[in-house]
Amino acid sequence: MIHELPVRVYYEDTDAGGVVYHANHLKFGERGRTEFLRATGFQNRNLHETLGVIFVVRHIEIDYLKTAHLDDMLVLETTISSLKNTSFTMHQALFRVDKNGAKEAQISDMKVALVCVDTKDYKPVRVPEEVKDVFQKYVE
Amino acid sequence: MIHELPVRVYYEDTDAGGVVYHANHLKFGERGRTEFLRATGFQNRNLHETLGVIFVVRHIEIDYLKTAHLDDMLVLETTISSLKNTSFTMHQALFRVDKNGAKEAQISDMKVALVCVDTKDYKPVRVPEEVKDVFQKYVE
Amino acid sequence: MIHELPVRVYYEDTDAGGVVYHANHLKFGERGRTEFLRATGFQNRNLHETLGVIFVVRHIEIDYLKTAHLDDMLVLETTISSLKNTSFTMHQALFRVDKNGAKEAQISDMKVALVCVDTKDYKPVRVPEEVKDVFQKYVE
Amino acid sequence: MIHELPVRVYYEDTDAGGVVYHANHLKFGERGRTEFLRATGFQNRNLHETLGVIFVVRHIEIDYLKTAHLDDMLVLETTISSLKNTSFTMHQALFRVDKNGAKEAQISDMKVALVCVDTKDYKPVRVPEEVKDVFQKYVE
Asked: What is the pLDDT of residues A70-96, one digit of tens each?
């Protein structure tokens, strides 16, 4: 399975080069991961309050492939590229789409490694089984 | 008429006080004005390319009424509070809504004065009649 | 007295219009107020931990006068425009400066009303006398 | 040689987790690279106007090692980790420093690959010799 989030480009996202500012691709990434989690039923607050864990970003790799511009309609695809005991890696591909939602070009490609830590002392702990079960469906 | 834009709060919007960072209310405002324009058929690019004008923010007044938090669902209401020859003022009210979309509390209240300028020398010009006609429907 | 903060414009501050994004003037404002407080010896942490209060932004009015651009050197002047029992208003004027630091043009003008609240229940309380004494020196 | 940029943490940089928002490390990175270029005499505008090239971010890898917090004083160290014909990689290490400027802990570690493109058609071109000569001094 692939999680998809539509993203519209506003002035706030752009820079004086006329393109989406490079750091803002990571903001889009966080929106995508949050909505991915919400779609699986494990949004930030639930993870924290019910399961006593949070997912912390440990490492990001991003390739900038094409530029995105003001008013562009984008779609961010999120999948799981690897799933370990206490950590997992998400793969996020950002595309520009046309009026009909068809992909025109890939804008960037991100790998985001997250660690599952408990909310008391921020030490790595196992990803909860119920979370792992759902994530499994999104493994590439 | 009132234009409504749903806004979800992500980590990118918050600060270490645990609330939506005060400057980011203005980002939400710009999203709301852009989608308002798109809804009326006059999005940024069209205004620029077809009508040779852009709307420039000249003055903002904002009241911070309540705090908004991570994962909150908000709705931003945009109307026109005054419409003059070369300028107009938009009124934007940000609310927190519950799961059913019912308004729970007003978060902030913004008045944004914009000037219509031509794209050649950035001098104030009359708001195009076709834009004014549509705006008229959103006057409070 | 006037507090001055130099501000350099980076890509992160700009938008596709080629200018400093309007909401980012408020970010500069917060930097200026923070450094103003630090200069008076009452930085955020001290206010919170020692005096049990924080200053919360309640209202902002901003006039956009000229545009600022990538690589511009700016200076933000901060003063107190009014000082009441439980609140005060700061005046922040943003200027572009030349290579020698001489002011060339005013970019924006901000009035920021802050309320002093206690850190337990966020109710308005009197601005601590020692803070008021120092602020008095910066009243316009 | 190592280029050093001091960075103060403001509310704008933080998120509701109480730490510097992960995407904002990249903003600090851009500030550091810009000031590095300015220190070498080749700031953005000069590169563009005199040499007809700009440096475009193609790939970023970042490790998040420790968290940074509101009011922290940081220092960002920038060096060149590899220098090729049409591209180069910058290494940026972010540290928290104490009151005396001594390094306390490394916060993050970034590798940023940039491509030299000409400003007409954005095709990769050779890094100008005069730039390469200066960069050579900062190679690790």
From this structure: 999 999 999 999 999 999 999 999 999
Q: How many CB pairs under 8 A join B and C?
A: 40
CA closest to A9 among chain B residues: B31
For residue B55, pLDDT over 90 is answered with yes
Model pLDDT, residue A138: 96
Which chain C residues are closer than 8 Å to D12 by Cβ? 27, 30-31
| A90 to A22, A135, D65: CA distances (angstroms) | 19, 10, 19
CA gap C105, C95 in Å, rounded: 6
Cβ contact C126:C52 at 8 Å:
no
- Sheet with C73-83, strands from edge to edge, namely B3-8, B73-83, B87-97, B103-118, B53-64, C53-64, C103-118, C87-97, C73-83, C3-8
Structural contact between residues A45 and B72, judged by C-beta atoms closer than 8 angstroms: no
pLDDT at A133 (0 to 100): 94
Cβ contact B1:B27 at 8 Å: no
Q: Of A50, A99, B23, D88, give the one whose Cα is nearest residue C12.
A: B23
Cβ of residue D27 closer than 8 Å to a chain A Cβ: yes
> For residues A11 and C14, what is the distance between their CA atoms, to the nearest angstrom?
9
Q: Position of tokens 């928002």?
A: D21
Q: Which residues of B are known catalytic residues? A: 15
Strand partners, C5: C76
- B2 token code pair: 């009132």
Cα–Cα distance measured from residue B42 to residue B127, given in angstroms and rounded to the nearest whole number: 12
Catalytic residue among D13, D15, D63, D133: D15
| Of the candidates A48, B14, C128, C12, the residue with the CA atom closest to the CA atom of residue D16 | B14
DSSP for chain C, please give it.
--EEEEEE--GGGB-TTSSB-TTHHHHHHHHHHHHHHHHHT--HHHIIIII-EEEEEEEEEEEE-S---TT-EEEEEEEEEEE-SSEEEEEEEEEEE-TTS-EEEEEEEEEEEEEEEETTT--B-PPPHHHHHHHHTTB-
CA A75 – CA B115 distance, rounded (Å): 33
- Look up residue D85 and give its DSSP letter: S
Q: How far apart are CA C95 and CA C104, in angstroms?
A: 7
Model pTM score: 0.96
Cα maximum dimension of chain D: 48
Packing angle of the helix pair A129-136, A24-40 (nearest 10 deg): 110
Which positions in chain B touch A8 (Cβ < 8 Å)? 31
Q: What is the DSSP letter of A72?
A: -
Question: Average per-residue pLDDT in chain C?
Answer: 95
